[in-house]
Amino acid sequence: MEGALESGIVGGQVAKPHSRPYMASLQFQGQHSCGGLLIRKDFVLTAAHCKWGGKQEMTVVLGAHDISKNEKTQQRFQVAKYFQHPNFTGQYDYDIMLLKVNRFLKLYKGCNNTCTRIEPY
After folding, report:
1. What is the rounded CA–CA span in Å between residue 94 and residue 84?
2. Number of helices (H) and strands (E), helices first, in the chain?
3. Are 33 and 56 in contact (CB under 8 A)?
4. Rounded distance between C-alpha atoms, residue 90 and residue 59, angstroms
5. Which neighbouring-strand residues pair with 20?
6. d(CA 64, CA 1)
7. Which of 64, 71, 84, 119 would give a disulfide with 48, using CB separation of 3.0 to 4.6 Å?
8. Is-contact 95 85, C-beta < 8 A?
9. What does the DSSP 8-state code read for residue 46?
10. Do 59 and 22 touch, CB atoms closer than 8 A?
11. 53-75 pLDDT, tens per residue?
């Protein structure tokens, strides 16, 4: 995703537009703060440290290539519920969290969870 803080990326390359349809931008007050992975049409997987202590509302942006632009492919959701790992203490152990979004997202070629599909045994 373009438009994120470039200083945190070293030696990276710009991805082909919409080649990572499962990637999410987690935002506070319109600013990207963390990334996430769409695992179901109503759940995003991310790091537990991405939930800040206050009552700030987190927005999940999916279907974006450049989050600094208002692309017609983008879908925005509010987080309905946070599921931090119960053993997370603010350190890097157990630094995992599920986010349930407030409604189902529309899946399409540029916004889906194709990388996480698991075939039955």
Report:
1. 9
2. 0, 6
3. no
4. 21
5. none
6. 7
7. 84
8. yes
9. E
10. no
11. 666 688 999 888 888 888 888 88
Query: What is the rounded distance in angstroms from the CA atom of residue 119 to the CA atom of residue 57?
Result: 35
Q: For the whole model, what pTM was predicted?
A: 0.77
Give domain 23-101's CATH superfamily.
Trypsin-like serine proteases (2.40.10.10)
d(CA 71, CA 74): 6
CA distances from 43 to 53, 109, 116 (A): 21, 18, 12
Residue whose token pair is 């519920």 = 81
Buried b (16+ CB within 10 A) or exposed e, 48-87: bebbeeeeeebbbbbbbbebeeeeeebbebebeeeebeee
The SS3 call for residue 79 is strand
| Dihedral pair phi/psi, residue 49, rounded to 5° | -70, -10
Amino acid 111: pLDDT:
58
Give the position of tokens 């800040």: 52
